[in-house]
Amino acid sequence: MKIIHSFILMTCFLANTNGIRFTRCRLAGALHKTKLIDKTFFGNWVCLIEKVSNRDTRALVVSPSGKKSYGLYQIPSRWCREGKKGGECNIMCESLLDDDIRDDTACAMNIFHREGFKYWTQWTIRCKNDNLITNEIYKCPDLWNKRPRSERSVRSRKKRFSKKEANRFSYYGLRWLL
Length: 178
Prior knowledge:
Strand order of the largest sheet: 1-2-3
Structural class: mainly alpha
Shape: globular
Order of helices and strands: HHHEEEHHHHEE
Number of helices: 7
Radius of gyration: 24 Å
Strand content: 5-15%
């Protein structure tokens, strides 16, 4: 029975070809787009994903005891259910292996709010107090949707204009009532 079940799961896994193996910057961008992760912990999440799944949405790990962990965050089957929605995240385990990372991230945030990062031993061992990845992802181009250059220049012109106007109403270095 166990062999048949494993075969079915592996068949589903191999048939799932629409997973993604992210680059670091592309992962950071995709996580940012979910709007589920606070910017403060962004580097921790990227590091966690790199260390547990190598940024691969199709990552499936089966331990020697038969326990399975799914997707980017390597979420154990306690939080999901095979074949239909269930578990503590009310999600189907197979949906953690596709390219839609929003549901995976929502489940990971659920785990984080209950257990913290310490739930993932790889985060404690390999990411805690390590800012290398955090520093690297802030170098990713266009990650934080910075304000367009034209908007910034208009803003700076407004500041210069208001300073000039204020200086025009100055007498002996003192500003008079405007």
